[in-house]
Amino acid sequence: MKILFFSHYFAPEGNAPANRTYEHCKLWAQEGHNVTIITCAPNVPDGIVYPGYKNKLFAREMMDGIKVLRVWTYIAANKGTTKRIINYLSYMLSSIFFSFFYKRPDVIIATSPQFFCGWAGLITAKLKNVPFILEVRDIWPESIAAVGAIKNKRILRMLERLEIKMYKAADHIVTVGEGYKKKLLDKNVPEEKITVIPNGIDPEIFQPAQPNKQIIQKYNLEGKLVCSYIGTIGMAAGLDAVIETAKELKKQNDKNIVFMLVGDGAEKEALQRKAAKENLNNIIFTGRVDKKQIPAYLSVTNACLIHLRKTELFKTVLPSKIFEACATAKPIILGVEGFAADFIKKANAGICIEPGNPKQLLDAVKKLSQNPDLCRSLGKNGLEFVIKNHDRKNLASEFLDLLECTGRKKHPVLTRCETMQQTGNRTQEEPAINCESLYQTTQHITH
Q1: Are residues 19 and 92 located together in one domain of the fold?
Q2: Are residues 261 and 361 in the same domain?
Q3: Pairing of β 350-352 and β 283-287
Q4: What's the CA angle centered on 178, arms 172 and 182, to 5 degrees?
Q5: I want to staple 378 with a disulfide (CB 3.0 to 4.6 A). Which of 48, 111, 122, 331 is the partner?
């Protein structure tokens, strides 16, 4: 198949949409499919283009069998509103324009979390008259309203109308969790139009490992319980609770616990100022690290903090950080309610706390600090659960089945695909659909 994928974020960027898109496309390319990504120069989260790249009008590269087309965008840091919207719009216009130089694909995919990328894919699919699959990783613009990034109700209503039109126009929608599916159903998207393909893990990259001695020495972590938050330090993360918990640990003269915030984002500088003002030497800010280094930082971590602000919308999300923590056998302290909490309880992989509650965060880190056996047990449970249910190769194969069913438009195959949707999506134990062999078998029976 010729697959054209629109993604605002892509490797070497290390955020969740970039990682998921890269891993899926790499596996599809290994299967022999012709995969092309239209993205922009890597610059997340600080709006500075990565070394070795330039924000050119147009640039090509090959990455693990994937054809990567990078188009010009107005570069903006991952903070503020106006400049970021200009950034999103510039990507949409550039990617649509340069897609005309790409031969007609069999299927087009576009991924959120910002839906101007979705519109780029949709418009191109309509112009080229090919099927369009929308991947919903975030309910946009509801998510930006939840963190207060846009407060103008008129703008939000306009964006919501565009959102609904995009859902209606898509041939199919893929979501990363049942929570998102529920939100789409609430917006009157037909259930048979939605497939849930969750995030997963690559056990060759994320696996239990001996602690990285260089990182331990660099940050003086020997003999301490390291509670790490790894990811974008943005408005949605709600990490003020870490500051308050660190203050209480300092007051109790507890020097055995340290927080390590690995990453960058709109709120990092503000948090650093607060930590400096309180003279908190039990919080480490590493800044942005290359995604290839993330396993090393996980290796020195004793507990992973996964946290979002307390809002109704975030009860629907299932953060990708959960899978990486579980894959490296790290217990999780989860400050996210709803579907994420249900996941952790089902896997018995961590301790759930109320988002933004410093006292509960304090109690959780102290409990893990005083009970190494509990740490090991929770980590082991999480590892076993994701290996069984969330192997990235299996999930990429399931996604590919859907692409083949949507792209080939063969009636016997489509009937099978529709049946798959109407039965609520196949479980992990069911085999992946091979559309080609199914079609050939149907033709054989017919003849």
Answers
A1: yes
A2: yes
A3: unpaired
A4: 75
A5: 331
> Angle 26-107-141 (CA atoms, 0-180°, nearest 5)?
85
pTM equals: 0.77
Domain count, the chain: 2
Residue 263 forms part of a structural domain: yes
Structure tokens at 297: 């930082």
Q: List pLDDT tens digits, range 160-209.
A: 788 889 999 999 999 988 888 988 998 899 999 999 999 888 888 899 99
Helix-helix angle 358-370:372-389, to 10 degrees: 100
Residues 289 and 171 in one domain: no
Residue span of the structural domain in which 38 resides: 2-200
Are residues 104 and 125 in contact, defined by beta-carbon separation less than 8 angstroms?
no
Task: Count the neighbouring beta carbons within 10 Å of the beta carbon of residue 163.
Answer: 20
Pairing of strands 107-111, 132-136: parallel
Q: Does the residue 86 lie in any domain?
A: yes
The answer to whether 163 touches 141, Cβ cutoff 8 Å, is yes
Q: At 428, give phi and psi (nearest 5°).
A: -65, -25
Of 93-107, 109-123, 275-289, 416-430, the poorest mean pLDDT is in: 416-430
Q: Are residues 183 and 258 located together in one domain of the fold? A: no
Q: Does a structural domain hold residue 244?
A: yes
Residue type, 336: V
